[in-house]
Amino acid sequence: MSEDHKKQLETQLWNIANELRGKMDADEFRDYILGFIFFKYLSEKMHIYADEVLKDDGLQFVDLNPDDATDAEYLDAVREEALGKLGYFLMPNELFSEIAKRGNKKAVDQSNFIIEDLTAILNNIEQSTMGTDSEDDFGNLFEDLDLNSTKLGKTVDARNSLIAKVLAHLDKIDFKLQDTESDVLGDAYEYLIAQFASGAGKKAGEFYTPQQVSKVLAKLVTLGKDKIKSVYDPTCGSSSLLLRVAKETNVAQFFGQELNRTTYNLARMNMILHDVHYKRFDIRQEDTLEKPQHFDQKFEAIVANPPFSANWSANDLFLGDERFSHYGKLAPKSKADYAFVQHMLYHLDEQGTMAVVLPHGALFRGAAEGHIREFIIKEKNELDAVIGLPANIFYGTSIPTCIMVFKKCRPNDQDILFIDASQEFEKVKTQNYLTEEHVNKIINTYQTRENVDKYAYVASLKEVEENDYNLNIPRYVDTFEEEEPVDLEAVSQELKQLNQDITEVDKEIEGYCQELNLNTPF
């Protein structure tokens, strides 16, 4: 039933988004539709929890009147309980269903203007957390929902009408939050994020890693583990990659950092909506390389899809930074790929595993990057595997990419596994896509760690050294397909026959030219 409900929910939510977004860009309307879904989630969660708290007293949350002294005491008790359990509080008249009703009233004597009320409610959710443990997780969470933006309509009435329509459509959908065995809404939210990403072009890379790539990364860092203490993503986007790890094993704590403010808000919403308690995640907003926010912490699993070949300051002062100082060189200003790798290795626990997506150039570029790559392999011996992915697998870019897997304590410390999965994919519209079969083949090959003809090769460290630490996959995995042997005698006979045929045709043309009293063209 949950799979059917999930598909139904995905379709309903995406239809609402398409129907109501008008001429707005996908990434602009995304913030509104995801924000409203999140508000409905918080509201329903609050409603369910409050009714549970009040059950023994035979009361319903929506029936409590804050102007009644007795009811006000009950509300205070519910508030205290909710702030500890949920991390936030909503009054009965602030619930999503109530504001949706007000926005769609037809009575002449009652206003259906809700923009100011809705703005106040979203602000109240954030204010309710002030001074509590959840303050950092809810602070400014709704700041991107500008309900007075002309993108929603040129006039106040037009904006109010659109917002009321969105809320009315969402109000009809049953999120089934009391079904605690499934994560249907969380999966539907991820589906929406993916749909918006596919329509956002180059901007998509800022907040989303394709689900199948996320699955590969998550499986790589959780192999053989039924639980992990912590997972970290230094460029966490919408938190989709972090949450994917939790589908592979039990995760105690989630950590992430994100530069883009809007995406940072989306990341926190995504965590909360997946029912990750606010005490179990620590997502922060800042530049990871320039201003790391989890400096003294080590993590059991690290996953990342950093922006490809991004710019960074490469300030010489970083040569004194513990993350970079051992290497003697910094990644170049115009290509921060190895700066992210160095940052992640610094944060990796001694028994941890790290998997990062990088452009192919990171495998073979020279100068400072070549030096860092050699240091990681020769001095630290922390590179465990290189996996080539198909081109055109990420939204907004067609460049070929790879996954590099690192471990501090490698069971196979005398070799590096190379997998060439670049030719195994399915094409969906303009995008290449990894199927479940492709994902499983990558993971199984990584686990068995054996040579596979034209697909995988276990290279000794000596071989890598002989290749000057160039990790370009074709140097190790031979994908050359032998052509059928050429029968030279048959080709010779065919050429003779062709020449004979040409001579006969030339004679025929010459005859026609003579009949027409024309010079021959040869």
UniProtKB/TrEMBL annotation:
Q: Does the UniProt entry include the keyword S-adenosyl-L-methionine?
A: yes
According to its UniProt record, this protein's enzyme class is transferase
> What sequence ranges are listed for the domain N6 adenine-specific DNA methyltransferase N-terminal?
9-170
GO annotation terms (biological process): DNA restriction-modification system; methylation
InterPro entries noted in UniProt: D12N6_MeTrfase_N, DNA_Adenine_Mtase, DNA_methylase_A-5, DNA_methylase_N6_adenine_CS, Restrct_endonuc_T1M, SAM-dependent_MTases_sf, T1MK-like_N_sf
Give the coiled coil ranges.
Answer: 488-515
Q: Record's Pfam families?
A: HsdM_N, N6_Mtase
Q: Where is the DNA methylase adenine-specific domain?
A: 181-484
Q: Reaction(s) catalyzed by this protein?
A: a 2'-deoxyadenosine in DNA + S-adenosyl-L-methionine = an N(6)-methyl-2'-deoxyadenosine in DNA + S-adenosyl-L-homocysteine + H(+)
Q: What is its EC number?
A: 2.1.1.72
| Zinc recorded as keyword | no
Q: Which UniProt keywords apply?
A: Coiled coil, Methyltransferase, Restriction system, S-adenosyl-L-methionine, Transferase
Which molecular function term from Gene Ontology is one that the record holds?
DNA binding
Which family does the UniProt entry place this protein in? Belongs to the N(4)/N(6)-methyltransferase family.
Under what name is this protein listed?
Answer: site-specific DNA-methyltransferase (adenine-specific)
Q: Which organism is it from?
A: Psychroflexus salis
